[in-house]
Amino acid sequence: MFLVTIPHSPPTDNSGTAQLRDRIADALARARRRTLALTDCLDEAELVAQHSRLMSPLVWDLAHIGNQEEQWLVRNVGGHEPVRADIDELYDAFKHGRANRPGLPLLAPNQARGYVGTVRDRVWDVLERSELRGKPLVDDGFAFGMIAQHEQQHDETMLATHQLRTGAAVLSAVPAPPSSAPVDGEIVIPAGEFTMGSSTDPWALDNERPAHRVSVPGFAIDAAPVTNERYLAFVDDGGYDRPELWSDRGWAHRTEAGLVAPQFWECDPTGRWWRRVFGVMTPLRPHQPVVHVCWFEAEAYASWAGKRLPTEAEWEKAARFDPSTGTSRRFPWGDADPDPDTANLGQRHLEPAEVGAYPTGASPAGVHQLIGDVWEWTASGFEPYPGFRAFPYKEYSEVFFGGDYRVLRGGSFGTDPVACRGTFRNWDHPIRRQIFAGFRLARDLRPGEGE
């Protein structure tokens, strides 16, 4: 158990501001509890080690979290003198790639913990004194929400690093729930316009903005993500040995990387499949969404199944559009925040839940588990929305537009609710498998279908 002291907010006549201050304090404290839980469970040697060239040493993530918080909240919002201006370059993600970070003169684990603690103490003071309005960076607590999301995003990255570790298990959680309702087949989404993106969520990030109308042709989308059982049928049918199912780039990557199954899958001599989950070998649960597949694998599976990946607009329309009101919701189930009955988020479990585990989280059209469980690959590249404006800095989104990225939607079991909503956009290279990513399929409608 990790305790975080939250100073009492000063009295105010503005109950809305007090509530916002409480919301910010809760988001920051929840993120810090998770950060400490992911780092305090390992000894110093494991914290400074690089468990994969794809990932930073965990101690780098820890200090980077504090450095971003210092720069934006202590210095920028609070106007205070730097805590450690001398380490800014060390923890600049754009100046040092992940593969090179172990060779940097990083703060030792005890120094990193002391640093992030000192920064957070100053942030509580900044939060107490901020009016949370008056300029775009602090209106509705945006900068504080941005930092809470940043820390949780790094917590999910650190969770992925834990999955790549080869040592004994150090994390535990109760198993994800089984299915409570059968979910199968497709859902037809009729053609028409809907509002995509956000102009009202105060903590939505720049790439989610602005809200804009998008016309989407009719399509069918799977009611649930592709499961282990269905993906195993692709494996058993020689899907990894059939170049006609893969794009040229995908086949080249499959060959070079030697892909034969999703990452962390292993088949024993009896032909039974297992999956390594944070250091523990577990039998493959057939009804869980498949996880740890790259975009090229998802693309090949779609070809094998005679379908395709949904576009980003299709995914969001299936997740947010309510045909009864003609409006777009924050989440598939409505505008209320996620809870344990609607979605598998927040690292409550260390795995996806089985398909059908969250019937109350379905969209109005009847599409299930669009939020939580696994990030879902889409067919779309990462591009700005019409009218996009970088805020508060170009390096969050703008520098990635037009690169070799594919958009992922929906969050995973390792995503905190503060960093997950129906408009949230994630992106990564199509070869990445260490992220908690799966997918669902879509297809064009046949003539007369959906009318």
Could you describe the 3D structure shown?
The chain is of the alpha+beta class and 451 residues long. The protein folds into two domains: 15-164, dinb family like domain (Four Helix Bundle (Hemerythrin (Met), subunit A), Up-down Bundle), CATH 1.20.120; 172-451, paralog of FGE (formylglycine-generating enzyme) (Alpha-Beta Complex). It is built from nine helices and 14 strands. The strands form five sheets. The protein has a four-stranded mixed β-sheet with strand order 12-11-10-13. A three-stranded antiparallel β-sheet has the order 1-4-14, covered by helices on one side. Strands 5-6-7 form a three-stranded antiparallel β-sheet, with no helix packed on it. A hairpin with a 5-residue loop joins β5 (265-267) and β6 (273-277). α1 runs parallel beside α5 and α3 (58-77) packs antiparallel against α5 (142-164). The longest helix is centred in the first third of the chain and has 26 residues, at 15-40. The model is unreliable at 1-13 (pLDDT under 50).
Provide a brief overview of the structure.
By secondary structure, the protein is α+β, with helices and mostly antiparallel strands. Helices cover 30% and strands 12% of the residues.
Question: In terms of topology, how is this protein built?
Answer:
Elements: H1 15-40, H2 44-48, H3 58-77, H4 109-129, H5 142-164, E1 186-189, E2 192-196, E3 212-216, E4 219-222, H6 228-236, H7 248-257, E5 265-267, E6 273-277, E7 280-283, H8 295-305, H9 312-320, E8 321-322, E9 327-328, E10 375-381, E11 406-409, E12 426-428, E13 437-438, E14 442-444
Parallel strand pairs: 10-13
Antiparallel strand pairs: 1-4, 2-3, 4-14, 5-6, 6-7, 8-9, 10-11, 11-12
Helix pairs in contact: 1-5, 3-4, 3-5, 7-8
